[in-house]
């Protein structure tokens, strides 16, 4: 009976491994960011000489450059993502980055509902959210500016297209400009709030040569690399390592399995750690390939999980023998670090879904179903383990009573 029960438990745990769902993190994130739009030199206000499709959010930019007086007439076209949202576009004199940019933000006037185009300076305090964003005159020669809705939209709504037009006097012979753009969900009073932090949102800046239309887009990790990173980490840290911990927890008490539980536990954990290390390495590669794109919480949790997994691997080299007096301390350390690694890994998988913009996706639902199946199996096995434990306690108690009765009878017969 015990052999059949342990064999059933092992088969159940192996079946749980088969239901792992590999989330396609980056493919959906790229789709959420929006593909590049098709540019046009014609706008409702005027016709421009050149145009380009910007690399994120489906945005475009059209312009005419007058070299005689170094004047740039530009029209940026983007789209709102909320009826109470904002769309902004501007220029950074120093680098293709948000900090230090001079921008025009378009949003509805909270008092009248009319479309506004207000100037803002994005200082480091704004990036750190140390203070609200307040409109102020720009320290660049902004000769004219306006914002207008495009198409049938009469008011700001989700998906409405807006054109932000501006006339700027540039420095002589300076034709390579750093442009930034973005969009957000809310405006508090006349202060735009922070925009979403998906990969495409953080990469919404590019360097454009206004004479040749040559564009130097912000470097980002490829979709294939992001897909592989998310899949490996979800499978390893988010599923295989919890399964390996469950194997050790629920198969070890089965004496009939012998050392099989240990080999199964070691094989699953080694596979999970190898895949997780590969996913972690890909994350480092993605970070170096995407300067300026930083996810502090996701990165911190990933480092913590990788560190705990590495400590577990190294600890196997120093595992004392069962007769060693320090064995109990090693086991306590092994359990504490192991369960901690599992918890951090699972939490970071959910954080990864949020980072990639898949918080409400079927990929997350599939992972939740796989994790719930594993958790349900663990609950059932835990209940079974306690039932078996209580039965054994009762059996041992009855056996002790029987032995005591026999001893008493033998002593009475001896007298």
SSE layout and pairing:
Blueprint: H1 2-18, H2 25-33, E1 50-53, E2 60-66, E3 71-79, E4 86-92, E5 102-108, E6 115-121, H3 124-127, E7 142-150, E8 161-169, E9 176-184, E10 187-188, E11 191-192, H4 199-202, E12 205-209, E13 215-217, H5 223-251, H6 260-289, H7 296-315, H8 327-355, H9 362-414
Antiparallel strand pairs: 1-2, 2-3, 3-8, 4-5, 4-9, 5-6, 7-8, 9-12, 10-11, 12-13
Helix pairs in contact: 1-5, 1-9, 2-5, 5-6, 5-8, 5-9, 6-7, 7-8
Characterization of this structure:
This protein is of the alpha+beta class and 415 residues long. It folds into 2 domains: 1-28 and 222-402, Four Helix Bundle (Hemerythrin (Met), subunit A) (Up-down Bundle); 44-216, Sandwich (Immunoglobulin-like). It is built from 9 helices and 13 strands. It has helices at 2-18, 25-33, 124-127, 199-202, 223-251, 260-289, 296-315, 327-355, 362-414; strands at residues 50-53, 60-66, 71-79, 86-92, 102-108, 115-121, 142-150, 161-169, 176-184, 187-188, 191-192, 205-209, 215-217. A 6-stranded antiparallel sheet has the order 6-5-4-9-12-13, with no helix packed on it. Strands 1-2-3-8-7 form a 5-stranded antiparallel sheet, with no helix packed on it. The protein has a two-stranded antiparallel ribbon with strand order 10-11. Helix 1 (2-18) packs antiparallel against helix 5 (223-251) and helix 5 packs antiparallel against helix 8 (327-355). The longest helix is centred in the last third of the chain and has 53 residues, at 362-414. It is elongated, with a radius of gyration of 31 Å. The model is unreliable at 16-36 (pLDDT under 50).
